Amino acid sequence: MNENPHARALLLVAKGRVEGLAQSESDWLTAHLEDCDSCNEHARRTDRALRALRTAAVSLPADLASRTQFRVRLRAMELREREPKRRMLWLACAASWVFGIASAPFVWRVFEWFGELTGAPKLILEIGFGLWWTIPALFAVIVLLLESARHPGEPEWMKPDRSRELAARRN
Amino acid sequence: MGPAVTFSTLMGDETKTIARGLQRRDPDLLDRLIEQYEYRLFRYLMYITGDKARAEDFFQETWIRVLERGHQYDGKSKFEAWLFAIARHLVIDWQRTKKAQSLDALVDPQQEKPLQVADENAPSPVDHVLAREREEDVQASLRRIPAIYREVLILRFQEELQIEEMAGLLNIPVSTVKSRLYRGLDALRGAFQEGGA
Predict the structure, then answer these.
(1) What are the residues whose beta carbons fall under 8 Å from the beta carbon of B42, sequence distance 6 or more?
(2) What is the ipTM of this complex?
(3) What is the pTM of this model?
């Protein structure tokens, strides 16, 4: 417990606003504030400042909600248009993996035949066979990269006009 | 069943509904949320950026992110805490690209005039002037408070988030949130006393 009753009172004034007081603390503080003008004034100033903060108004820009709703709907449409393409891509990848697994023994035979033909070491053939499996993933990465290069997020025309802000600053 | 349990169940249902809607990118739900959180999100952005035009840009960007990343919201926490976290990250990302040191760097008192916030719905020119003066007084007082304290004060006393929710949103320990709140409260009292707001 704090030895100085005034310091304790100021601490409890803040604590009461920030996290709340226990009943015993609240009773003690009420009794102290009744007797101490300086601490009472401190509590009043704290409440005035908090009231000013709570009641502070901010005026909204005109049509902020409707402009945002319009922009969000456009973006949603754009995302919806892209979704089937992406789904097709993943389906193609999945199909490619399935065929890859089914054809693995035959592919390995081709690699073996190629090894016999060229005399390549078995390690090279095994690495080549391993890399064979990365082809669908590589294909998917290339397609995704191409797609994101074509659609880099939101189109520029949908973004809010920042020139407005710059113009306001200039004035 | 007590009222507190009922309220928390309702809130849980509401957040689950929002999570499901965001998963589907439900446009009607998004429209409703944009309207519902318009004032609170804009006010939060306004106070942490200190700039109306910038707050407006971040407001729109935040909702685009909500659309794109809605599937990440699981409905277990309050929607507004998740929403403010998105907005906050956008501001921080932007600030990093500008190589600023702190949220305060968003506002350069040497370059910018006090916020000129026009009251677009004011009923008369006199009310308009009075309201604007009051807003400017409050804004000016708030700008005397360091950004990290200003932010916790807004989240606690305007948005009425719980300290634990704030800790999650700000990604800091509960004890840090509390110490920022105590310091912020001191700064707030000083700022309003100085500014006479």
Answers:
(1) A58, A60, A61, A64, B55, B56, B59
(2) 0.73
(3) 0.68
Let me know whether A76 and A35 are in one domain. no
Q: Which amino acid is at A111?
A: F
Query: Do A115 and A139 reside in the same domain of the chain?
Result: yes
Helix, strand, or coil here: B120? coil
3-state DSSP of B88-108 = HHHHHHHHHHCCCCCHHHHCC
pLDDT score of A162 more than 50: no
Kindly report the nearest CA distance between residue A134 and chain B, in angstroms.
29
Are B188 and A49 a contacting pair at CB < 8 A? yes
- Among the partner-chain residues B46, B56, B191, the one whose CB lies closest to the CB of A160 is B56
How far is the C-alpha of B35 from the C-alpha of B29, rounded, in Å?
A: 10
What count of other Cβ atoms lies within 10 Å of the Cβ of residue B37? 21
Instruction: Compute φ and ψ for B177, nearest 5 degrees.
Output: -60, -45
Q: In Å, how far from its chain's centre is CA B118? A: 19
Domain count, chain B: 2
pLDDT of residue B63: 96
Structural domain boundaries, residue A29: 5-55
**Do B17 and B28 contact (CB within 8 A), yes or no?**
no
Calculate how close chain B gets to A10, using CA atoms only, in Å. Answer: 10
B101's CB contacts (< 8 A; 6+ apart) are: none
Query: Which range of residues forms the domain containing residue B59?
Result: 1-107
With beta carbons less than 8 A apart as the criterion, state whether B150 and B139 touch: no
B154 and B191 fall within a common domain: yes
Q: From the candidates A72, A159, A165, which should be mutated to test the interface with B, based on the most B CB atoms within 10 A?
A: A72
Regarding whether A150 and A88 lie in a shared domain, the answer is yes
- Is A57 in contact with B134 (Cβ distance < 8 A)? yes
User: Where does residue B164 fall: left (phi above 0), alpha (psi -120 to 50 degrees), or beta otherwise?
Assistant: alpha
Question: If DSSP codes are grouped into helix, strand and coil, which group holds residue A57?
Answer: coil
Question: Where a domain ends, among A55, A73, A88?
Answer: A55
- CB of A59 within 8 Å of any CB in chain B? yes
Q: Is the pLDDT of residue B4 over 60?
A: no
Who contacts B22 (Cβ-Cβ below 8 Å, separation ≥6)? Answer: B29, B30, B66, B70, B71, B73
Q: Are residues A68 and A48 in the same domain?
A: no
